Amino acid sequence: MLRNLLALRQIAQRTISTASRRQLENKVPEKQKLFQEDNGIPVHLKGGIADALLYRATMMLTVGGTAYAIYQLAMASFPKKQD
């Protein structure tokens, strides 16, 4: 038990070294060029295939949800007749 506490104390006292961390490449200038390029593509689709798929999925869900809401409103406005 004491050995575990001493090991924990030693780990807690270690300083965090930034030299061992992996350096990430700065991709901001590349992304700025991509999004500022005047190529006729809307900015929300300039990210590539993933943006196009996300856009289409969002549109399908929006149109489907709107159609379902209108259907439910129509069904609620014409109640079934009691026999």
TrEMBL record:
Entry keywords, A to Z: Acetylation, Membrane, Mitochondrion, Mitochondrion inner membrane, Oxidoreductase, Transit peptide, Transmembrane, Transmembrane helix
Pfam families on file: COX7a
Single GO biological process annotation from the record: mitochondrial respirasome assembly
Pathway assigned to this chain's UniProt record: Energy metabolism; oxidative phosphorylation
GO cellular component term of the entry, any: respiratory chain complex IV
Record InterPro entries: COX7a (IPR039297), Cyt_c_oxidase_su7a_sf (IPR036539), Cytc_oxidase_su7a_met (IPR003177)
UniProt topology in membrane: Single-pass membrane protein
Protein localization: Mitochondrion inner membrane
SUPFAM superfamilies in UniProt: Mitochondrial cytochrome c oxidase subunit VIIa (SSF81419)
Coiled coil spans: none
TM segment ranges: 53-71
Gene Ontology MF term list: oxidoreductase activity
Taxonomic superkingdom: Eukaryota
Main location: mitochondrion
Cited PANTHER family: CYTOCHROME C OXIDASE POLYPEPTIDE 7A, CYTOCHROME C OXIDASE SUBUNIT 7A2, MITOCHONDRIAL
Family of this protein: Belongs to the cytochrome c oxidase VIIa family.
Name listed for the protein in its UniProt record: Cytochrome c oxidase subunit 7A2, mitochondrial
Source species: Panthera tigris altaica (Siberian tiger)
Taxon lineage: Eukaryota, Metazoa, Chordata, Craniata, Vertebrata
GN (gene name): COX7A2
